[in-house]
Design a protein that fits this description.
alpha+beta, OB fold (Dihydrolipoamide Acetyltransferase, E2P), BirA Bifunctional Protein, domain 2, 2 domains, eight-stranded mixed β-sheet, five-stranded mixed β-barrel, elongated
Length: about 425
C-alpha cells in the first residue's frame, strides 16, 4: 500500500510504501539512514543491512542527495520524539540516482540560491513557505465565499493605469496599439459590484517600479475586493475580520511549517479585532516624537511604517491620508476635504503596509474633477466615469499583496522568499 508521509500516524505498525526524494543520507557499516520527503512531509527510513536483501542494501548505500526512491517498510513511532514517525525499511529501490547536488550543506549567498531557485524550492524552509502561502490563499477564498463576495476575473491587459502612474510594463498590442500589464483589478471590480454586489479578484499584477527594497517585486499576486453600500468604517471591519481569519487558519493548519521557519507564533496569536488605529495626523505626530522629519502632509515611507509598527503588538490602521498623496478615486473626508476616507493596514514587527483601501468617490462630477486635477486622460477613464451615471452608490474596497502577508506571517526578511520564482528589477531567471 502506497501512502503519503503525512498519513504515517494512521498506519503505525503497518507495512507501507512511500515514493519521494532523499534529502539527506548517512550510513555506518550495517545501517543506513535515508531522510525522505514526498511533498506531504518528511520522514527517516532506517535501513538495516540484516533486514533487507542485497539489492535493497546496495540501493540504500548508493542513494545520493536528491535521488528519487521507493522505500517499503513498517511505520513506527520515533523512540524519542513524540508525534514523529519513522519507516523501518524492508526494501529500497532507486528511481533515478541524482548527480552531485549543487546545493550542499554549506551556506550559500542569496544570488547563488536565486540562480538555483528551481532546486532551492526543495529546501525544507521553501517547502514550509509555499504551504503557508497555500493556506493564506485558501483562507482568503473561504472567507470571501462565506461573506457573499463573488470571484470576478479582471483583465491582465489594460489600456491605462489604474492610478495614473507611469510605472507600467508596456506591451505591443494589435493594430499598433499599446497595452499595459495590470497593476490592479480594482476599477473593473467597481464595475462588477453593480451586478453582483460584492466581489474580489486574485491574480498576478505588475509594477515597473525601479525599487530594490525588501518589500518589492515586479510581479506579485494581489487580492482586490470591492463592495457596494459599504462605507469607510465597515470597510475597515471587513479587513480586520479577513486578516484575523487568515492568520487563525495558518495557525491551525501550519504549525509544523512555522516551526521549520522558527517563527515565533506569539505575535500571530495576538492578531484579533479590533486592530489599532491612528489618523495620518496622529501618526505624523508620533513620528516626530521618534525623531522623524516627515512633513505634516507627506505620505509615509517604508521607514516610517517600520517605526510605527514596532510600537504595536498587532496590526495598525493609518487612516485619512492627505488627498494630495493618494489616488484620484478616493472619497474626501466630509469633515476635512483635504483628506480622504482611506486606510493602510500595517503589519506589526516592522513589516509595514499589507493592505491599502478606501471608500471610493461615487459622485460623477467630483470624480471627473479629480481626473482633471491629476492630469489623467478623460477618454481613457470615460467608462469608469460612466459607473457614476447609472445607479451610483457608496462603495469601498481594498487590496492586499499576497507576498507581503506571507512574509509577515512566516517572519521572512525579504518578499523574494515568498513566491516560487521571484521577479526583481535585476532578475528574470530562472
Amino acid at each position: 500500500m502506497t501512502i503519503l508521509i503525512s498519513d504515517f500516524s494512521k498506519h503505525v505498525g503497518e507495512t507501507v510504501t512511500i515514493k519521494g526524494w532523499a534529502y539527506n543520507v548517512r550510513s555506518s557499516g550495517s545501517i543506513a539512514f535515508l531522510q525522505i520527503r514526498d511533498g506531504s512531509g518528511f520522514t527517516q527510513a532506517v535501513v538495516a543491512k540484516q533486514s533487507v536483501d542485497e539489492p535493497s542494501w546496495q540501493a540504500a548505500v548508493d542513494t545520493t542527495i536528491e535521488s528519487s526512491v521507493i522505500v517499503a517498510g513498517t511505520v513506527s513511532a520515533h523512540p524519542k520524539q513524540a508525534g514523529v514517525y519513522e519507516l523501518q525499511a524492508s526494501s529500497v529501490s532507486i528511481i533515478q540516482r541524482a548527480e552531485e547536488y549543487p546545493i550542499g550543506k554549506k551556506e550559500h549567498g542569496p544570488d547563488f540560491l536565486l540562480d538555483n531557485r528551481h532546486l532551492w524550492l526543495r529546501a525544507p524552509s521553501q517547502w514550509a513557505i509555499q504551504r503557508v502561502r497555500d493556506s493564506i490563499i485558501r483562507a482568503t477564498y473561504d472567507w470571501m465565499r462565506d461573506h457573499d463576495f463573488i470571484k470576478i476575473d479582471s483583465p491582465i491587459f489594460t489600456p491605462n493605469a489604474c492610478e495614473g502612474t507611469t510605472d507600467l510594463f508596456e506591451v505591443d498590442y494589435f493594430e499598433d496599439r499599446k497595452a499595459y500589464l495590470t497593476q490592479s483589478g480594482q476599477l473593473y471590480l467597481e464595475a462588477a459590484i453593480s451586478s453582483v454586489g460584492r466581489c474580489f479578484d486574485f491574480g498576478p499584477v505588475f509594477r515597473a517600479e525601479k525599487s530594490k527594497t525588501r518589500r518589492h517585486l515586479t510581479e506579485f499576486w494581489m487580492m482586490d475586493a470591492e463592495a457596494a453600500f459599504v462605507e469607510h468604517e465597515e470597510n475597515l471591519r471587513i479587513q480586520e475580520e479577513l486578516v484575523s481569519f487568515i492568520v487563525s487558519r495558518v495557525l491551525s493548519e501550519r504549525q509544523a511549517e512555522l516551526k521549520i521557519l522558527e517563527r515565533d507564533i506569539a505575535p500571530l496569536e495576538n492578531v484579533k479585532p479590533p486592530f489599532y488605529r491612528l489618523t495620518h495626523a496622529e501618526a505624523v505626530k508620533k513620528l516626530h516624537e521618534l525623531g522623524s522629519d516627515i512633513g505634516e502632509m507627506d505620505d509615509l515611507g517604508a521607514d516610517d511604517e517600520t517605526k510605527l509598527t514596532q510600537l504595536y503588538d498587532k496590526p495598525l490602521f493609518i487612516e485619512k491620508y492627505p488627498a494630495a498623496v493618494k489616488a484620484f478615486y478616493m472619497k474626501p473626508d466630509p469633515s476635512d476635504p483635504t483628506r480622504v476616507l482611506n486606510a493602510d493596514l500595517l503589519a506589526p514587527e516592522g513589516y509595514g503596509e499589507i493592505i491599502g483601501g478606501s471608500q471610493r468617490e461615487d459622485s460623477y462630477d467630483a470624480l471627473l474633477e479629480r481626473v482633471r486635477q491629476h492630469g489623467l486622460p478623460e477618454k481613457a477613464f470615460a467608462w469608469y466615469l460612466d459607473l457614476r451615471k447609472y445607479g451610483s452608490v457608496p462603495h469601498s474596497g481594498f487590496g492586499f499583496g499576497l507576498e507581503r502577508i506571507v512574509a509577515w506571517v512566516c517572519g521572512l526578511h525579504h518578499v523574494r522568499e515568498t513566491i516560487p520564482f521571484p521577479r526583481l528589477i535585476n532578475r528574470l531567471d530562472p
